[in-house]
Write a structure and sequence with these properties.
Chain lengths: ~190, ~300
């Protein structure tokens, strides 16, 4: 449950920071936010699909941990090559609408797909009987969306006032990796509880 | 006697609130654009462009006198023209944030040979400037609906330069945060030709003021700071060694723009050095730019 919360938190925090990262190149016009939200929604939908597929074959807490490690790792390219990628897109695409769309895909598609896989996989780990599956899924949505709400609020009200964009991204990446490691360690003993 | 007082009190209580603040003010155009609510309001002697974001907080963006449209109404606009003392014959001028277009209009008149590019994010504002404030780009001029920072980056890519850049994109209510960072100012500096002048009109009077000072100091070797009680702040700098005030005073004496409401000599008296304490504030960067949070209350 904690893991789902942190997953939800990270998604929205990164989405808000995406606006910050794109603005120096593509501005803060309405279509820049349009691009970001489109890409996040599209990636999440594919992530859900992928997470569901992954959960079919021998699901375990250990594997769930690997998903978090992967999600944390996919943030690294943002930090290392974000500006280079945006500069290249800016030079190649004149229209800021398609420029911001392309840059959003290049930067955020993979991390968001990775984070999207978390929820359906967690459902599989927590469901023990078919009768309770709806309840478990509902509770997971609750926790992860609550995390998203809090991630949005804290990032936009406080984090940007206290920290640099890169510092926040590194912290989120480290939090995801820490979650992954914790799941792997706990996963050795049992196979339940996400 | 007491009855007389009472009747005045009653009059004040019941009648005055029903009367509009300015008797003859009349909204002649209203539009909800992509970015804001736009209003054009005619008053007794002038027409104003207003951005009404919330009830009670209306900001007048640009005004024009009916009988003397070239005469500037606002202090900040008058201060902006001080920048031309440092580059009296600008060939290429860039204006970021059009508003009612009163400043580029006057620049067209004062510098007939110049080429003026105006950038405004809101297409509706451009239409209003042209329709209601008689702003007409000349053949050599251009008006582009685009985010200012995107325009600056594109212009750098195509290796253009400007002799005079005016940054006027803040509305007092909202600051585009990516246009209040060290990196943005550095990009603008790069876009200046040798001897080019950059003038920024900002609104800050709050906590943001110190950060703004520190940010300009981080991007430029020097700048002049001009502040009026009206809450406007104008910053002037350029790609040149810091000009000597006496030399500027000499030049100011030889130019008479008082018919446009501009007293250049008086403007120079408003120049103050940035305070040491302000320079210690945290610099705003692309990584750290909570300009609106800093500009808000608290």
């Amino acid at each position: 449950m904690v893991l789902a919360f942190i997953g939800g938190f990270s998604i929205m925090s990164i989405e808000l920071l995406a606006g910050r990262m794109l603005a120096p190149f593509f501005g803060s016009s309405i279509y820049v936010w349009g691009s970001i939200i489109t890409v996040f929604m599209l990636s999440l939908s594919l992530g859900y699909l992928l997470g569901g597929r992954l959960s079919v074959r021998a699901p375990s807490l250990r594997k769930f941990g690997y998903i978090f490690l992967a999600a944390g790792a996919t943030i690294t390219p943002l930090l290392l090559a974000g500006n280079v990628i945006m500069e290249a897109v800016f030079a190649a695409v004149e229209d800021p609408r398609y420029g911001s769309l392309l840059a959003s895909v290049a930067l955020f598609f993979i991390p968001t797909v990775a984070m999207g896989t978390i929820s359906p996989y967690a459902v599989r780990l927590l469901v023990d009987t078919v009768g309770h599956s709806g309840q478990v899924a509902g509770f997971l949505y609750f926790v992860s969306t609550l995390g998203s709400a809090l991630g949005t609020l804290l990032t936009s009200f406080y984090f940007v006032l206290w920290f640099e964009v890169t510092q926040i991204l590194i912290s989120l990446g480290l939090a995801l990796i820490a979650c992954g490691l914790a799941a792997i360690v706990f996963g050795r003993g049992t196979t339940e509880s996400a | 006697m007491s009855r007389l007082v009472l009747s005045f009190v009653l009059l004040g209580t019941f009648v005055l609130p029903l009367m509009p603040v300015s008797v003859q003010a009349e909204v002649i155009f209203k539009q909800r654009s992509l970015y804001r609510n736009i209003e054009v309001v005619d008053d007794r002697d002038s027409r104003c462009l207003r951005f009404a974001n919330r009830e009670r907080r209306v900001s007048r963006q640009s005004c024009q006198y009916f009988d003397d449209p070239d005469r500037l109404v606002f202090d900040y606009g008058k201060l902006v023209f001080t920048g031309f003392l440092m580059n009296p014959n600008p060939e290429r001028i860039l204006i970021i944030g059009l508003g009612g277009g009163s400043l580029p209009r006057l620049m067209q008149k004062l510098f007939p040979e110049s080429r003026i590019d105006s950038v405004e994010i809101d297409p509706a504002v451009i239409q209003v400037a042209e329709k209601y404030f008689s702003f007409t780009p000349r053949e050599q001029d251009s008006v582009v609906a685009r985010d200012g920072r995107v325009f600056v980056r594109r212009a750098l890519l195509s290796k253009q330069t400007y002799d005079f850049i005016l940054l006027d994109a803040f509305t007092g209510d909202y600051i585009p945060e990516h246009m209040m960072t060290r990196e943005y100012l550095q990009e603008c500096k790069e876009l200046l030709a040798e001897g080019g002048v950059l003038v920024a009109n900002t609104f800050s009077s709050s906590r943001l003021y110190r950060h703004e000072t520190a940010t300009f100091a981080a991007a430029f070797d020097w700048f002049f700071n001009m502040r009026r009680q009206t809450g406007n702040r104008v910053i002037i700098t350029g790609k040149m060694p810091q000009p000597d005030l006496e030399t500027l005073r000499d030049k100011a004496r030889r130019i008479d723009w008082r018919e446009y409401g501009i007293d250049l000599e008086e403007n120079l008296d408003w120049i103050e050095a940035p305070s040491k304490r302000d320079l210690e504030a945290r610099v705003l960067t692309d990584e750290y730019s909570p300009a609106n949070l800093l500009n808000g209350p608290g």
